[in-house]
Design brief:
The protein is mostly beta strands. The chain contains no helices and 11 strands. It has a single domain, classed as Immunoglobulins (Immunoglobulin-like).
Amino acid sequence: MFWKKSLSSMTFPVLGGLTYFLLSACASSPLGPVAPHQIEGGVEFSLVLPNVQSVAVVGDFNDWSHTAHLLAPEDGDLWSGVVPLSAGEHVFMFVVNGEQWVVPPEAEDYVEDGFGQKNGVVVVR
């Protein structure tokens, strides 16, 4: 089952029992969440998240590796990176600080992950 709605208004638990409000954005659109999108060189993934040490994008394209595609910190709390992906549908999530799995706040679609969460779906054409 697919969902085509934003998850940007959800709160997610963080290590230590705290909660945070999760937003996704890219540098060219700071006003709201932006789904991963194709640019020259691949697909740009981005996430706005304060007070974290690392953010990785994980998915079927990298065998869910926490270290294969680390996002780089940008202005403020923005983390972003470009991942070269082949044509087709790919499922993904973010991993924060090496252990906290985060549902993408924006994606083209969502699918159940089998562990009680949702994976984002990005389609590369």
